[in-house]
C-alpha cells in the first residue's frame, strides 16, 4: 500500500469539523461555543490546571488558550487563581455556574463517541484509539524536528 495515497489529514480534519458542528448544535441554547467546550471540560477534569498545561494538553498556542479562558472567566464558568508560590502561574477551576453546561458537554461527548464508533467492535475501538495516539505522537515528533531545523537555520 502506498502511504502517499492515504488521506489521514483530510479525515482527521473532517472529524474535527464535524465534532465542532456537533458541539455547536448541542450547545446552541447555551452561552458557550464548541471552541470553548474543550477548555471547560479539561479544566473540569483537571482542577487547578495551569494555563500552559491546558495549552499542552490540547496542542494550542498560549494566545488561543488565554482568549478561551478569558471568555469562560467573563461568563462566570471558571475562576483563575494566581499561585501563591509563583505569581506567573495561574490555576484554573470551574465554578458551580458551569455545572449544567458541563453535564451537557459530557453527554454530548459520550453521544459523539458512540456515533463515531457505530458498527465497531470493542477491539476496533481500542485499536483506533491506540493508532490515533501514535499518529499524534508521530506528528508531535515531526513538528518538533521541523521547528528545531527552522531555529537552527535562522541561527546560521
TrEMBL record:
Residues 1-137 form the HTH marR-type domain. The keyword DNA-binding applies. SMART domains: HTH_MARR (SM00347). Signal peptide: none annotated. It holds the Pfam family MarR. Keywords: DNA-binding, Transcription, Transcription regulation. GO terms for molecular function: DNA binding; DNA-binding transcription factor activity. InterPro entries: HTH_MarR-typ (IPR000835), Tscrpt_reg_MarR-type_CS (IPR023187), WH-like_DNA-bd_sf (IPR036388), WH_DNA-bd_sf (IPR036390). The keyword Cell membrane does not apply. This is DNA-binding transcriptional regulator, MarR family. It comes from Anaerotignum lactatifermentans DSM 14214. The lineage of its organism: Bacteria, Bacillati, Bacillota, Clostridia, Lachnospirales.
Amino acid at each position: 500500500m502506498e502511504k502517499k495515497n492515504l488521506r489521514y489529514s483530510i479525515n482527521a480534519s473532517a472529524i474535527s469539523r464535524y465534532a465542532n458542528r456537533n458541539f455547536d448544535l448541542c450547545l446552541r441554547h447555551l452561552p458557550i461555543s464548541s471552541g470553548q467546550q474543550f477548555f471547560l471540560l479539561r479544566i473540569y477534569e483537571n482542577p487547578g490546571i495551569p494555563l500552559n498545561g491546558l495549552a499542552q494538553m490540547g496542542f494550542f498556542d498560549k494566545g488561543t488558550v488565554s482568549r478561551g479562558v478569558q471568555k469562560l472567566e467573563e461568563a462566570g464558568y471558571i475562576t483563575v487563581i494566581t499561585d501563591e508560590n509563583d505569581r506567573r502561574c495561574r490555576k484554573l477551576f470551574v465554578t458551580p455556574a458551569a455545572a449544567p453546561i458541563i453535564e451537557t458537554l459530557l453527554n454530548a461527548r459520550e453521544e459523539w463517541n458512540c456515533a463515531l464508533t457505530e458498527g465497531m467492535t470493542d477491539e476496533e475501538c481500542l485499536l483506533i484509539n491506540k493508532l490515533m495516539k501514535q499518529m499524534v505522537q508521530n506528528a508531535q515528533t515531526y513538528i518538533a524536528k521541523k521547528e528545531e531545523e527552522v531555529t537552527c537555520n535562522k541561527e546560521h
